[in-house]
Amino acid sequence: MTLGSHLTPLARSHIEQADVVFAGLSDGAVEMWLQRMHPDVRSLQPYYAEGKSRMQTYRQWVELMMTEVRAGKRVCGVFYGHPGIFAWSPHKAIEVARAEGFDAHMEPGISAEDCLYADLGIDPGRFGCQHFEASQLLFYERKIDPTGYLVLWQVGLVGDLSLKRFSTGAAYRQVLVDLLSQDYPLDHEVIIYRAATLPIQRPEIRRIALRELPAAELTTEHTVVLPPAAPLKLNLAMRERLAALDRETTMA
Question: pTM of this prediction?
Answer without folding.
Answer: 0.90
